[in-house]
Amino acid sequence: MAVNSNPFDGESEKIDPSASHRVALRSPRPVRSQRSAVTPVAPATRTAKPAPKESVWRKFRSTAIMAIVVPGLFGTVALPAYAFSPTATDDAAASSTLQTLKESGAQSLSVDEGVTAATVVRDGYSATTAAELANARAVAEAAEAETRRAEFATQQTSFTGPTASDHLASPAHPSNLSLDQVFNVALQYQGVPYVYGGATPAGFDCSGFVKYVYAQFGIDMPHSSTAQGNMGTRIPVADAVPGDLVVSAGHIGFYAGDNKILHASRPGTPLRIGPIYADNWWIVRIGI
What we know:
two-stranded antiparallel ribbon; 7 helices; 6-stranded antiparallel β-sheet; endopeptidase fold (from Nostoc punctiforme); 10 strands
């Protein structure tokens, strides 16, 4: 029996060979002239397939592992420091092991007979008390003063010219007290060495220099910078002229103009003109 396939409807029918080989074909379906509207059908909701048993077991196993491992990690990190510190038992065991190694591997050292041990000497030190320091300073100052007195005596006795007392007894300028002339007389002694207590051209200190110059004008002045500064009249610095006295605490000299002073300043420096280095100074004029 042969099968005839219909390309139009997909159906088949049997062919009867006794029917004069006629094949009865069904009439084809009428072709519609217009397509009927197709109503969209909502897709059917898919029903979730149940998870295989093996997948459920894997999820359970992963959750169980995380529940056990993670707390353990946090617990390890949070252990206190003493949990890692060696115990007394460990120290004792280590000491015992070290001692055993020392005894089993002991070494020997031989020294020649000619070698001798060096003598150990401990360093010593000494301290000076405040009283000892003060005494040493007093001794040094006394020695320095004695040296100055000896120098002064030598220089003064070596000078053969008139002293301040000689000038007072016979002043070179008894009636002519001119500040210009006073300053010119004072300028003659530039280069004289500084001598503590000196009052002659062999050596001057500050007040001995002023005393010696004014003695030549018949004015007797004490050998003291403070006492000399209290003599005469104090005037404004702006009115000062060469020949006036520049006075400061513990020092005195002749004003040289332009804020400078002619004076015997200090040991080792000869008598000369220099800037006024005192922070506080004033002007005193003698004879008015």
